[in-house]
Amino acid sequence: MSGEIIVVGTVSDDPLASDVAASMGQEADISDLMSIKSFANTEFCPRFLYDENDMTRIGRSLEGKTVVIVSSCSGEYTRNSRAMRTFLVARAAKDNGAQRVVLVEPDLFYSAQDRGPRPEHGCVDFTRSEADYKKFDGQPFSAALYAELLKTSGVDDVLTVHNHSTSVQKLFMRQFDGNFFNISPARLYAEYLANHEFVQHPERHMGFVLCAPDRGATHLVSEVYNYLTENARNMLLPMTPSMLMMDKERCSERKVIIKAHKDSPTRLEEIAGREVVVFDDMVRTGNTIVECCKSLKAAGALRVIFVVTHFYSSPEVKENLNDASVDEIITTNTLPSILNRDMQGRLRRKMLILKIERLIVNTLLRDVLKIGPPRFKRQYTIDISRKNPRWRQTIDLQD
User: Fold this and answer.
1) pTM higher than the cut 0.85
2) CATH of 5-183 given 3.40.50.2020, 3.90.230.10, 3.40.50.880, 1.10.3470.10
3) Minimal CA–CA distance to 124: which of 180, 185, 165?
4) In the prediction, which pLDDT does 237 show?
5) First vs last C-alpha separation in the chain
6) Nearest to 290 by CA among 338, 324, 247
7) CA-to-CA separations, 352 to 234, 328, 370, in angstroms, rounded
8) Structure confidence at residue 200 (pLDDT)
């Protein structure tokens, strides 16, 4: 990689930052490029490292360079703490001459706070009710503030993964003059399903039933369906995927009712004996997904695979997803702590992680920096516990 691009993190041991840097071809460790320290009064102060004897480039050591900041939420630092660190690292880069600062934040902070108490606070794809406005009464429009602070700090481009908030997407596109890149994992999921799940067990099904547990997941499921159909044309074995759209009705904070949408292309009674893949952008409690999976199993599904991009490994999630209705869990490392076997807990028996450093690097090179074609043909590597019965066959299939 050219020395004109440097990859750093906001903490010295950020695993995602290290992996992205290595995948970009950066030989120097992220901790060797920047000193990350806190003063005795707890204030954070990053410093880009330079030749101590060079007195000719004071304040200009990063001239002409592009600094890529990789920020993920893992370890002991809170999202609030990491956000402040990002502001200061970006400002340090610009105050020392960096030409461009790119933030890679796969799970974009404050995205859940994507609207406020007034009509001008957010641009959503549904009609807001009085109850929806009241839900945000007294709160700030935090996503907008976060975007403004990133821009003020010196960030020029933002790259994230599977952000499904229309409001966040529009305000970041506006704030960063179009330099907001929201990576869809749809092609990655389709490639994995075709190359691993289907190839290993073609005798088990005619093709996957791709399930959206609610309206929010419909777009992703449609994308995966299109890519999977495209892949199927090039396969020797026949595979015909189909789509199942579900509706959820929330009865309380922790209780939902799941049923097939009236306009679903596939009906519940048509899934008997087939493998069903349920998709979602994130899981925070697991209640909705488990109810969905129970409905699928009750309808005769052979296996139910849950695919989720952002996996919050809370005790409640691990307890809920341990349910027998969920046969397998596939997630990514947008939240790198999920790579820790202790964070997986008993779910390690049915969990598989698609590491997405290659997907991020391909997008940086092709779409953000526009300096070359994608570096990797396969956009993921696999991390799987030896406790998972599929460990050996999965390892054997990796390139």
Assistant:
1) yes
2) 3.40.50.2020
3) 165
4) 55
5) 22
6) 324
7) 26, 8, 32
8) 55
Q: What pLDDT score does 1 carry? A: 40
What span, in angstroms and rounded, lies between the C-alpha atoms of 246 and 261? 5
Domain segments of the chain as ranges: 5-183, 186-355+377-397
- Give residue 157's identity as a one-letter amino acid code: D
Phi and psi (nearest 5°) for 260? -70, 140
Alpha-carbon distance of 106 to 334, in angstroms, equals 5
Indicate the angle between helix axes 142-153 and 166-175, nearest 10 degrees: 30
Taking the C-alpha atoms of residue 43 and residue 41, their distance in angstroms, rounded to an integer, is 6
Per-residue tokens: 280 = 């979602």
Three state DSSP letters for the chain: CCCCEEEEECCCCCHHHHHHHHHCCCCCCHHHHEEEEECCCCCEEEEECCCCCCCCCCCCCCECCEEEEECCCCCCCCHHHHHHHHHHHHHHHHHCCECEEEEECCCCCCCCCCCCCCCCCCCCCCCCCHHHHHHCCCCCCHHHHHHHHHHHHCCCEEEEECCCCHHHHHHHHHHCCCCEEEECCHHHHHHHHHHHHHHHCHHHCCCCEEEECCHHHHHHHHHHHHHHHHHHCCCCCCCCCEEEEEEEEEEECCEEEEEECCCCCCCHHHCCCCEEEEEEEEECCCHHHHHHHHHHHHCCCCEEEEEEEEECCCHHHHHHHCCCCCCEEEEECCCHHHHCHHHHHHHHHCEEEEECHHHHHHHHHHHHCCCCCCCCCCCCEEEECCCCCCHHHHHHHCC
Tokens representing residue 93 in the block: 């880069």
What's the average pLDDT block by block, 10 residues per block, for the chain (399 residues)?
A: 82 92 94 91 92 81 96 86 97 97 97 94 91 95 98 98 96 98 96 76 69 92 92 64 86 69 92 94 91 95 96 93 96 94 94 97 96 92 92 64
Tell me the backbone φ, ψ of residue 126, rounded to 5 degrees. Answer: -145, 165
Output the pLDDT for position 254.
57
Q: CA 162 to CA 111: how far, in whole Å?
A: 11
**Residue 47 structure tokens:** 């410093």
- Looking at domain 186-355+377-397, which CATH architecture does it have? 3-Layer(aba) Sandwich (3.40)
